[in-house]
Amino acid sequence: MAVTISEVRAAYIRIHKWIHKTPVITSQTLDAMAGRELYFKTENLQKTGAFKARGACNAVFMEKEQNPQSAGVVTHSSGNHGQAVAYAAKCASLKCSVVVPKGTPKVKCDAITGYGANLVFCEPSPQSRKDTCAKIASETGQAIIHPFDNYNVMAGQGTIASEFHDQVPDLDAILVPISGGGMTSGIAVATRGLRPQCKVYAVEPLGKDLQRSLEQKCRMWPNPPQFIDTIADAIRTQQCGDLTFPILCDYIESKVFTVTDDQMIEGMRLSMERLKMVVEAASGAAVYAAVRGMSEMDPSIRKVGVILCGGNVDLDMLPWVNRSTSYQ
Amino acid sequence: MAVTISEVRAAYIRIHKWIHKTPVITSQTLDAMAGRELYFKTENLQKTGAFKARGACNAVFMEKEQNPQSAGVVTHSSGNHGQAVAYAAKCASLKCSVVVPKGTPKVKCDAITGYGANLVFCEPSPQSRKDTCAKIASETGQAIIHPFDNYNVMAGQGTIASEFHDQVPDLDAILVPISGGGMTSGIAVATRGLRPQCKVYAVEPLGKDLQRSLEQKCRMWPNPPQFIDTIADAIRTQQCGDLTFPILCDYIESKVFTVTDDQMIEGMRLSMERLKMVVEAASGAAVYAAVRGMSEMDPSIRKVGVILCGGNVDLDMLPWVNRSTSYQ
């Protein structure tokens, strides 16, 4: 196994001065609705507004440690990972290129260039992103920082769990919104090392169908890889990574919580009303599963951790304002 | 002086198990905009969604200590203080009546009755509220808990500052949204006792005109008392209290930061975008003053504390959705 609790511990030592130790918050109202004790880890308050800063810092700082003459780093992402790598590179005084598709909103571009990164536009297709990223890497010698299929990134995300188990030492389970699986595998590895009796559950958008692959311990997804049609743009990747999937098979529960867009929106709204936390739809998925989905979980599980993974949301486009919903 | 640091310390011992020690959060982006270091005390995450839980707990618990046969407590407020007194009475197992004007939204009524309090409707005038409250007090023997003109309430609010100075030990100044002055006087008393070199500034809605009264150390407001026309319903009271005003004259800066409704809205939005914190307009006033108003403050003041006093806001009525604004 290329990521163990040792790598997570080393990651924490490496990055802790550059990230926030995010608070854990609670709500008696949500506890009553869930019929359990819920503990929310507020990674929406993390540097750059999402947990991605942890993995990016660990991977980028390791690149600098291992290659003192490094030409820098490159990645492709218009979202939280792009900002996070730009932030990490700035912290490490490394050059950074971020490939984004044409048409990316200016506010996202500004967030990336605000950290001093070089923005490179590509065509809005997965292939063009990859090709452009590879071209920059080969021309400049910059190291590619993959958003999830990278053990150093996973180890960095695992520090969410090492902090969380320190803050709440007796969790029975943790609910993690999943996309490529970098955060979930990091949390699963750290949890196995620090509190093996604590179960890790993934929360997915409808259409990911992760449970079937976990149950069979085999990649059952259709190819070529595709995006899921969901409002949660941070978790649109259908397939988990080649490196993350085996870790998930070993360490997380095969039961997966599946959440629709309307349910995520309800989760976002519960978070804003009850926790006073601005979160993006992926976090809303975990909140919904924790508050409304507990009938699917063993009643012996009393203390449930919930990852509020990010808070980067367009306040002009809050979904209940723009949809006809009845979440009162 | 009827409130000193001793009463604040005693209040903290009395209430700390029933309130949250709220986190302090920071944002490099807001620091850069302000040109100072800003530390945000997240009382929007407090029990009942606002700092009012502190003062209410202290006053209600003291009522129970001093009158073991107490008939309970009564107050008039449809807002944060009403919820807070209901919560405190539930914690103390005391009876509670809350007087609210006819037409109060159901969601606010539900929040009060959810804590087991008895809801009493009155006419929507200040006089009717007072009269109804006094009538209940005389008929039932319940003790009136005034929202700000009560030394026990002030001492409870002062615990915001004792926590804050413990969390950030070298603040140069604190910005406090002001209405009746209970929170501001409590914070001022605690700050004078714990860190006398730290200055306390009030942030007011336009129309309060507090600075004139502070400069003259005399109540310059027109009578009868009136409400200010502002979207910040938590800070509509124009006049500070008879008990709070002398403390304010002694302990806070006579310079007052004045904020318009549009500026509060910008502050709310900055809080949600940059701090990921849902706050109400009164908190938005303090955020605006901290981020945009620092040209009015001595440049030697580097570390500024900002009180996010509450987060109870109607998510269907976020002001930038319902107004033609250009806060991007």
From TrEMBL, chains A, B:
Keywords: Lyase, Magnesium, Pyridoxal phosphate. Pfam families: PALP. InterPro entries: Ser/Thr_deHydtase_PyrdxlP-BS, TrpB-like_PALP, TrpB-like_PALP_sf. It catalyses: L-serine = pyruvate + NH4(+); L-serine = D-serine; D-serine = pyruvate + NH4(+). GO terms for biological process: D-serine biosynthetic process; L-serine metabolic process. Its EC number is 4.3.1.17, 4.3.1.18, 5.1.1.18. Residues 18-310 form the Tryptophan synthase beta chain-like PALP domain. It comes from the Eukaryota. GO terms for molecular function: ATP binding; D-serine ammonia-lyase activity; L-serine ammonia-lyase activity; magnesium ion binding; pyridoxal phosphate binding; serine racemase activity; threonine racemase activity. Its cofactor is pyridoxal 5'-phosphate; Ca(2+); Mg(2+); Mn(2+). Catalyzes the synthesis of D-serine from L-serine. D-serine is a key coagonist with glutamate at NMDA receptors. Has dehydratase activity towards both L-serine and D-serine. Belongs to the serine/threonine dehydratase family. This is Serine racemase.
